[in-house]
C-alpha cells in the first residue's frame, strides 16, 4: 500500500513552479492534481495561481457541469471549493502535518453562470501538536466579481506521525 507524502504542500509548490510557466503548464498541473485526487479532477477546474496558503481555480461553464436550470450545478460548486481549499491549505501546512476534509458547509448566493473563479487564502497553524479542526473559506465569484457561493471546508489536521518519519 503506498504511503502518504509527508510534505504534499512542498511537492505541490514545486510542481506548480515547474509546470505553470510552460505552455499548457497550468492545465498539466491541474490534471496532475486531478490524477492524485480523481474526483477532484472530474469538475475540470484549472489552477491559475498557487502560492503558499493561496489557490485560485477557474471553472468554465459547460454542459458537463450544468444543472436543469441552466446554471452550474451545486455539487460542481462544492467540488470546486474543496479542490481550491485543499491546495491552498496543503501548501500552507508545516511538513508532516496531515489534513482530511471532515465536512463542508456552503451558501449558494445566486445562480452560477459563465466562467467562475474560486479563491482560497488558508492560514494554517504553525504547529499542530494534537489533532484539531481547522476551517478554510473558499469564495466562488462570477465574471462580474459577484460572489455566487461561499464555502467553509472543515479540515481535521493531525500532527506528524513519528513512526512514519522514522520509516522514511
From TrEMBL:
InterPro entries: DUF4442 (IPR027961), HotDog_dom_sf (IPR029069). Pfam families: DUF4442. It comes from the Bacteria. This is DUF4442 domain-containing protein. It comes from Gemmatimonas groenlandica.
Amino acid at each position: 500500500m503506498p504511503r502518504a507524502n509527508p510534505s504534499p504542500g512542498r511537492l505541490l509548490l514545486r510542481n506548480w513552479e515547474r509546470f505553470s510557466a510552460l505552455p499548457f503548464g497550468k492545465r498539466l498541473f491541474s490534471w496532475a492534481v486531478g490524477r492524485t485526487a480523481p474526483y477532484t479532477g472530474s469538475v475540470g477546474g484549472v489552477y491559475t495561481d498557487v502560492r503558499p496558503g493561496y489557490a485560485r481555480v477557474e471553472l468554465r461553464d459547460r454542459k458537463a457541469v450544468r444543472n436543469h436550470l441552466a446554471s452550474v450545478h451545486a455539487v460542481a460548486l462544492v467540488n470546486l471549493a474543496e479542490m481550491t481549499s485543499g491546495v491552498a491549505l496543503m501548501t500552507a501546512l508545516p511538513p508532516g502535518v496531515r489534513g482530511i476534509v471532515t465536512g463542508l458547509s456552503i451558501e449558494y448566493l445566486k445562480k452560477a453562470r459563465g466562467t467562475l473563479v474560486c479563491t482560497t487564502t488558508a492560514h494554517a497553524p504553525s504547529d499542530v501538536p494534537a489533532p484539531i479542526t481547522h476551517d478554510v473559506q473558499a469564495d466562488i465569484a462570477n465574471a462580474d466579481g459577484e460572489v455566487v457561493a461561499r464555502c467553509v471546508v472543515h479540515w481535521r489536521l493531525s500532527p506528524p506521525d513519528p513512526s512514519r518519519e522514522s520509516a522514511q
